[in-house]
């Protein structure tokens, strides 16, 4: 055997693939495995030029929050496909997106990149994005797995979370994307989860991601996230980025030589990377139609805009009178967030230019505010004069450039004080004032929103945002965006407020499953604007729903309803279906989103809709049994226009469903007694009258049973009054009809 063909050389060849070649490429092999080019791009290709002097020009689409606010999976797929085509044109093989972490707190600096406070929305929009990217021949890398919901201390902080919240809130979107869209890669996040780095969590990367969900792609680290390369590899992390990773290669080979790492683990990860490279690498470049993509960016931005309030001043008449456009953000918009997602836009439509073009009216512009404190008074005075002279004032407000970015969290949800002061003066000068918000994550709107004639949430709308805003304000496009996160009255009302962003290297997720609207409903807090809210220039009526298939009380449920446009103009409605347990404990959310869709209707039109409610929507994570459980009983099926605008209701019944559990002698008495069938059998067997006529001692006393319920049952074996032993437990299991394997003596 030659030296090159030796076992050690062969292992080194495999191990070399497990680290990147540089900042954005994987390694290739002489045998034909191509190198992969990886590029960021959750809202547009963000690929660095070879000399790192900038980025490849690319269409900047709306931010993640804006895309999700469309509630339109087909539109998101189209946007992602366009991003994929531009990635192919630039030579990228894998796109580092979508970003589907849960918006636990609106202070999260990267919140603009994430989709929702609700995992069902995040999962559905995320899957649509993956499908779009991969339809263009580019692999998608879903990120950041898991619990990367803040930027503060993100490379060290440990997210402390219950198993139930982990499953129901923070993993659910990833589960949906992985099991329905099959992304090429999954990116492990920087942070720790319950004390273990995500990159080193075998539970997350192997037991959950691969064994439970069936993921067969490659797991890559976030850039610089690996603390211990050998432990990460053992946990299931295939690729460390960035490269060249010479030190990691040495550590891997040394661990194998020392017997600390199974060489089969190295080979397995290398084979996964070869499969991804063979599937997605080396494809020919394709041409991208940037003009067409820009119009798609405009359409996506228009569909994302949320009309929060409207006292009848919108849509604007395009003729007659004077319009004052106030705010520097109308002239120099903040259209995308900072950090790795930042794209180099091919062009930029500004709201001011778009409004001047769309309106056959006199338009007065006033900057209104500036970062230069010496200019603020003069600019504000000019803006007030413009508002007073105009028939209507449109004021553009927002936190501004640099306020929302990867790498740091937001310090406040308030608009800058100079903007709030300006707005007070403008609304006093002209009560017909429309506010357009330019922001990534939500901003507080109370109390000033009560004094404006209309409030429009435009998000970070990408390069086509200016034209999109003009189309919505003038009625060329009927607004159809809806909130995917709640806007609270106060920051202190947010469920995560007591613990965000943590201290001492830990952030406690003490709110559990009560994230977002689940938390506001649970605490019965009033909010400024609820999850799912958004107005239209028309009105919609709901009739139904009726259950047409109850899934035999265990499977998916089909509900039918009709939706009618009862207004005078065409429009799109985002219908939402929530599930609410008729009888629930304090540990269950009031309601959870279970289905949604977006329906476009002409004026006066009616459509029949059949919505599928997945069986999982009725379930909760049972921590003791480590599986999904459904409680028996009635559930309300709420047809809604938002989480607090319930239009019609019906009911459906479910039978109990419990995951199988293994009872051992170390299980508590309560766990034994509450297990269906087994518990009753145990009581019966243990309470049998013995030859002397004695009963089962304390097992006949309900009070004693309650008091001793948390004691491991083996601790009671030596008590002569209990008559409990391993043989009796086995007899109880057999009597219940369960398999003998259900009891494992400790």
UniProtKB/TrEMBL annotation:
Keywords: Hydrolase. It comes from the Bacteria. InterPro entries: Cellulose_deg_GH3 (IPR050288), Fn3-like (IPR026891), GH (IPR017853), Glyco_hydro_3_C (IPR002772), Glyco_hydro_3_C_sf (IPR036881), Glyco_hydro_3_N (IPR001764), Glyco_hydro_3_N_sf (IPR036962), Ig-like_fold (IPR013783). It holds the Pfam family Glyco_hydro_3_C. Residues 19-41 are annotated as: Disordered. Gene3D superfamilies: Glycoside hydrolase family 3 C-terminal domain, Glycoside hydrolase, family 3, N-terminal domain, Immunoglobulins. Belongs to the glycosyl hydrolase 3 family. Residues 573-643 form the Fibronectin type III-like domain. SMART domains: Fn3_like. One of its GO terms (biological process) is carbohydrate metabolic process. It comes from Cellulomonas chitinilytica. This is Glycosyl hydrolase. GO terms for molecular function: hydrolase activity, hydrolyzing O-glycosyl compounds.
């Amino acid at each position: 055997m030659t030296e090159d063909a030796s076992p050690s050389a062969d292992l080194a060849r495999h191990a070399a693939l497990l680290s990147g070649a540089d900042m954005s490429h994987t390694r290739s092999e002489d045998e034909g495995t191509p190198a992969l080019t990886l590029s960021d791009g959750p809202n547009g290709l963000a690929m660095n030029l070879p000399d790192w002097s900038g980025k490849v020009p690319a269409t900047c689409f709306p931010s993640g929050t804006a895309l999700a606010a469309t509630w339109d999976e087909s539109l998101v797929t189209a946007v992602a496909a366009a991003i994929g085509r531009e990635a192919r044109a630039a030579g990228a093989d894998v796109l580092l997106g979508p970003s589907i972490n849960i918006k636990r707190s609106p202070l999260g600096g990267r919140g603009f990149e994430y989709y929702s406070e609700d995992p069902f929305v995040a999962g559905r929009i995320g899957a649509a994005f993956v499908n779009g990217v991969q339809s263009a021949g580019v692999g998608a890398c879903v990120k950041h797995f898991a619990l990367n919901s803040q930027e503060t201390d993100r490379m060290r902080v440990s997210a402390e979370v219950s198993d139930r919240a982990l499953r129901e809130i923070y993993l659910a979107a990833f589960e949906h994307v992985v099991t329905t869209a099959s992304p090429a890669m999954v990116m492990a996040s920087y942070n720790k989860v319950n004390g273990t780095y995500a990159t080193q969590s075998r539970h997350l990367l192997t037991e959950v991601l691969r064994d439970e969900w069936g993921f067969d792609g490659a797991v890559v680290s976030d850039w610089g996230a690996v603390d211990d390369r050998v432990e990460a590899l053992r946990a299931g992390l295939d690729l460390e980025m960035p490269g060249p990773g010479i030190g990691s290669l040495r550590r891997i080979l040394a661990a194998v030589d020392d017997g600390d790492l199974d060489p089969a683990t190295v080979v397995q990860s290398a084979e996964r990377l070869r499969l991804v490279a063979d599937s997605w690498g080396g494809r020919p470049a394709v041409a991208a139609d940037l003009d067409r993509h820009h119009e798609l960016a405009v359409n996506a931005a228009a569909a994302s805009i949320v009309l929060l309030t409207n006292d009848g001043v919108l849509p604007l008449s395009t003729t007659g009178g004077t319009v004052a456009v106030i705010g520097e953000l109308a002239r120099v918009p903040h259209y995308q967030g900072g950090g790795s997602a930042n794209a180099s836009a091919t062009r930029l439509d500004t709201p001011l230019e778009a409004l001047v073009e769309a309106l056959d009216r006199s338009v007065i512009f006033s900057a209104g505010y500036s970062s230069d404190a010496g200019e603020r008074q003069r600019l504000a005075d000019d803006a007030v004069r413009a508002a007073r002279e105009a028939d209507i004032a449109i004021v553009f407000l927002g936190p501004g450039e640099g306020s929302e970015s990867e790498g740091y969290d937001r310090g406040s949800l308030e608009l800058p004080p100079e903007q709030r002061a300006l707005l007070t003066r403008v609304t006093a000068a002209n009560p017909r004032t429309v506010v357009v918000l330019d922001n990534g994550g939500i901003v507080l709107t109370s109390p000033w929103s009560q004094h404006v004639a209309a409030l429009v949430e435009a998000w970070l709308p990408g390069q086509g945002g200016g034209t999109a805003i003009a189309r919505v304000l003038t009625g060329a496009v009927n607004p159809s965006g809806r909130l995917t996160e709640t806007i609270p009255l106060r920051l202190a009302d947010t469920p995560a407020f007591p613990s965000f962003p943590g201290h001492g290297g830990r952030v406690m997720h003490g709110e559990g499953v009560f994230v977002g609207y689940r938390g506001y409903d649970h605490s019965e807090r009033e909010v400024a604007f609820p999850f799912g809210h958004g107005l239209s220039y028309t009105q919609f009526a709901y009739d139904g729903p009726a259950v047409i298939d109850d899934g035999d009380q265990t499977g998916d449920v089909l509900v039918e309803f009709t939706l009618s446009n009862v207004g005078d103009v065409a429009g799109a409605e985002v219908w939402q279906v929530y599930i609410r347990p008729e009888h629930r404990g304090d540990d269950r959310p009031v309601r959870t989103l279970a289905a949604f869709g977006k329906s476009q209707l002409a004026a006066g039109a009616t459509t029949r809709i059949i919505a599928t409610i997945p069986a999982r929507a009725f379930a909760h994570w049972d921590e003791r049994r480590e599986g999904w459980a459904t409680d028996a009983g009635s559930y309300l099926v709420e047809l809604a226009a938002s989480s607090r605008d319930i239009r019609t209701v019906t009911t459906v019944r479910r039978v109990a469903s419990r995951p199988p559990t293994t009872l051992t002698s170390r299980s508590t008495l309560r766990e034994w007694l509450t297990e269906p069938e087994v518990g009753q059998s145990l009581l019966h067997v243990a309470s049998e009258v013995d030859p002397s006529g004695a009963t089962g001692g304390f097992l006949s006393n309900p009070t004693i049973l309650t008091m001793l319920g948390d004691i491991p049952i083996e601790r009671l074996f030596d008590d002569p009054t209990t008559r409990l032993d391993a043989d009796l437990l086995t007899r109880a299991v057999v009597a219940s009809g369960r398999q003998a394997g259900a009891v494992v003596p400790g």
